[in-house]
Design a protein that fits this description.
By secondary structure, the protein is mostly helical. It is built from 20 helices and no strands. The longest helix has about 40 residues. The protein is globular and about 70 Å long. The two termini are about 30 Å apart. The model has no long low-confidence stretch (mean pLDDT about 80).
């Protein structure tokens, strides 16, 4: 239990300093390095199994930082940088401006920006069927939907919360988590996904959408943050009307190049294609190669800003998460869950709480779920309960817990791209997530036989 105590104390200290206004990147990186040093002093493995050790615990601490710089910088980090560059270029050529100008007329009939917010949230949830990565979906929405929401009068905090939360509830019936959960529940994937998981997910999404409406309006009123819609008369651009579709070409590309209608392409590849097509349109419109290349500098500078503001924050969060996991924080939570032997509903609630806590502290939805799902067959047999009754709430709790974690990739990325504190985004997602989790538990009680 010493590991659990150390992890909790360091987590509280990290949260305290971030709340006091210290650099989130520096605090997370410092806290993570401290945890990794403690892990090494305790004789535990510093690196995950996927990373080759240097042979010395002391240098393994810094080897993991190198690994994350390469991994996050070249994978997820590259996605974030390219999307930020694309968004910056869309603003430079006037595509975002013409989009807002055209959208403001029909959407101006809707007086409440919070109705628009709910509509945006439901669209974002539907997008989770096409983009399986929570962070990938978040940064895609921040690059495409976020500017539109802000210009239509939705506050930056509320708009970022919408982009960070659509993957909080699992919709895709073929995601890896659902497949693994179906195996643990000893059910056919089709029956598990469509007859049990999907109805519960849709119910929770509806409840979260309503909660977003009232919660974001309340927080905006409390903070005094009122973002007036941009008046069409204030929008000046020489961009043609059809440029309004350009900010959404990455979303269209994701839907087209999914391996069914055409070749399956990675999001970065799709963004590069969209950027090249946009540049060709600009060249045809202005017929000035020098001006085109100068304009693309905006894209490259936006990518550099994204590395400093978002990717390094992700590296710090990753070091902190590995520090907790290497220390044995997750393993101790697992032992805690196994130490209780009682009724089905109590065990189900306990698994939900522990999974949510593990996802919150590590910022990962997969790690706690993959660790705890192995318990389900044993617990279900010993308690005489339906394994699906235990696994479905735990499956959703792992994703919901990630959405309120200030160190999760999706929260960090959305906060960085929105120029907000991760804790501001967490505050904005906290009540919708709590309501979603409560609905999942209640719906499981009603829809899944114990």
């Amino acid at each position: 239990m010493m590991e659990l105590l150390i992890g909790t104390l360091v987590t509280l200290a990290v949260g305290r300093y971030i709340f006091k206004g210290y650099s989130a990147t520096g605090v997370l990186l410092s806290g993570g390095l401290l945890l990794l040093v403690i892990t090494a002093l305790m004789g535990k493995a510093v690196l995950p199994a996927s990373v080759t050790s240097t042979g010395h615990a002391a240098t393994d601490v810094f080897e993991y930082v190198r690994f994350l710089l390469v991994d996050r910088g070249g994978g997820l980090g590259m996605l974030i940088m390219v999307l930020c560059g694309f968004a910056g270029y869309m603003s430079h050529i006037g595509a975002n401006t013409i989009l807002v100008k055209l959208a403001s007329k029909p959407l101006g009939v809707i007086k409440s920006p919070y109705i628009l917010l709910v509509a945006a949230y439901l669209v974002a949830c539907a997008m989770s069927l096409a983009v399986s990565s929570a962070t990938g979906l978040g940064v895609l929405l921040m690059a495409t939907l976020f500017p539109l929401m802000v210009n239509m009068g939705i506050s930056r905090g509320a708009a970022a919360a919408v982009c960070a939360s659509p993957a909080a509830i699992i919709l895709s019936p073929t995601s890896g988590d659902v497949v693994l959960a179906a195996q643990a529940a000893n059910m056919e994937l089709i029956d598990f996904a469509f007859k049990l998981t999907l109805p519960i997910s849709l119910t929770a999404i509806a409840a979260m959408a309503v909660t977003h409406f009232f919660w974001q309006r309340y927080l905006d009123g409390k903070s005094g943050e009122h973002n007036a819609p941009v008046a069409p008369s204030d929008l000046v651009t020489d961009a043609p009307g059809f440029y309004a579709i350009l900010p959404f070409t990455p979303i269209i590309g994701v839907l087209l190049f999914d391996g069914k209608l055409g070749p399956k392409l990675e999001i970065v590849t799709i963004i590069v294609i969209c950027l090249v097509l946009t540049a060709l349109l600009e060249l045809a419109r202005k017929r000035n190669g020098r001006e085109l290349l100068d304009g693309l500098q905006v894209c490259w500078r936006s990518m550099a800003d994204a590395f400093a503001g978002v990717v390094m924050l992700l590296v710090g969060a990753g070091v902190f998460a590995q520090g907790l996991m290497g220390l044995g924080f997750i393993a101790n939570l697992l032992d805690l869950a196994q130490s209780f032997g009682t009724g089905g509903i109590v065990i189900m609630l306990m698994l939900v709480v522990i999974t949510t806590l593990a996802a919150f502290t590590t910022g990962s939805g997969n790690a706690p779920f993959y660790a705890f799902v192995e318990l389900i067959p044993h617990l279900a047999t010993s308690l005489g309960v339906n394994p699906a009754y235990l696994v479905i709430p735990m499956l959703q709790a792992s994703n919901l817990g990630r959405t309120i974690s200030p160190v999760s990739g999706v929260v960090v990325a959305c906060a960085g791209m929105g120029n907000l504190s991760p804790f501001e985004v967490v505050k904005r997602t906290s009540l919708p997530v709590a309501v979603g989790l409560l609905v999942v538990i209640l719906a499981t009680q009603i829809m899944v036989p114990a």
